[in-house]
Design goal:
three-stranded antiparallel beta sheet
Amino acid sequence: MPPPYHDDQEGVLSKGDQTRRMTLKSKTLIIGIGNADRQDDGVGWHILKNIAEKIGFEVPDDPGAPIEIEDERVDLMYTLQIFPELAETISHYQRICFVDAHTADIPDEICWTELQPEYERSPLTHHMSPKTVLSISATIYGIIPETILVSIRGFSFQFQRELSPRTASLTQEATERIWEWVNAPLT
């Protein structure tokens, strides 16, 4: 597995003997995933809204509204689902954080997982995992950013735009943990 690239200076990114010049506003991208019309499935949007407010951006109080923010500290992006074209986007960053909901199949209420590229099969036609999109990025671009998946326990997936009280109570802790990670030195 190739190592993640590093920032030599002034936007020259290199991995082994490959070097390419690009402009990076931020070295970290947080991608919130989920359907904000399905209650706790939209927790990724709510976490992004909290982080946007930390960096001084206002997001309309409209769960599911587009969030695409570029800032020198962190870039934010909200999407309904992971898609193959994200491989190109994530190849421009040194660190990626995916934020999504999970069900009772995962015992922790807030689950923090470091990811490595790995193709994962899915029986569904509209499903791609963070590991799979990392695998695509590694294969096409030779880039493997430091990547984490932060998943927050969802308790209700009804057709509503507000989080359930139990999931809403977890968003502040998840936001703070992600914010600490954003502000930590790159590894």
